[in-house]
Amino acid sequence: MPNPGGNHGAPRVLRSTGLSVAFDGIRALQGIDLELRHGEILGLIGPNGAGKSTMTNALTGFAQFSGQLEVDGHDVTGWSSHRLARFGVRRSFRAVRLFQGMSVRENVEVAALGCGMAPAAASRAAADALEAFGLLDHADSPAGAMPYGHERRLGIARAVVAQPRYLLLDEPAAGLNEEESDLLLSQLRVVPQHFDCGVLLIEHDMRLVMGLCHRIHVIDHGRTLVVGTPRRSSLRPGRH
Hints:
Largest sheet: 6 strands, mixed
Shape: globular
CATH topology of the largest domain: Rossmann fold
Oligomer: single chain
Number of helices: 8
CATH superfamily of the largest domain: P-loop containing nucleotide triphosphate hydrolases
Radius of gyration: 17 Å
CATH architecture of the largest domain: 3-Layer(aba) Sandwich
Number of strands: 10
Strand order of the largest sheet: 6-7-8-3-9-10
Helix content: 25-40%
C-alpha cells in the first residue's frame, strides 16, 4: 500500500528533537531525541512511570510538548492529533474502543472512511487489513461478540487500514496469553513491509519486544537511558 508523498529526497523518518513534557511543573519527559525509521520496528521500553505513554501521546498530538517533531522532512511540531493522523501518524490504544453495534468489517471500514478514503477503496483496504491480522473469516461477526485476543488485533487493523507512514502501538499484547502473543508477533513482523510504514512498539512483553524489534529505545524518569539493538547485553529480557 503506498503512503502519501513526502518531501522528495528527504529521509523517511519520524524524529523528535529535545522533546519535553511537563505536567503542573513536573517534567514527565526531558529532552528525548527519538528516531523511528521507515520500514523498521522500534521498541520503546522502560519501567512503569518511565514516560512511555506520555511519549506516545506527544508523538501523536495528544499531549503538548516543547522541542521539535519532524515527519519525513516536514516540521509537524504543534500539529493536532487529527491533523497528524491524516498526515499518516497513527496509533492504537491500550483500551480498544470498538463500535459494538457494528460488524468487524464495518469497524475497520469506518476508520478508513474517516481518513478520507472513498467507499470502494475503504472496503478493499479493510479486507486487506482484516486478512493481515487473521480476522477476515470474522468480518461479518458483531464486533461486540469478539474474544479479547481478536479485539486486540481488530484495534490494530483499524490503525493500519488508513495506510500510515508511522504506526504507534501502545501495549498491543496487554492481557494476551502466550499463544495469542505468539500469533500477534508473527502478524506484526510483516507490518512494515506489507503496509509500507515504520512501527513504534510500546510493550512490557519482552519476549515480543526481543522477537520483533530491530532497535530498542529505553527510557526511565523521562530520559533516554540507551538506544541499541536487542543483541546488546544491556537490552536483554528481564532488565527493564
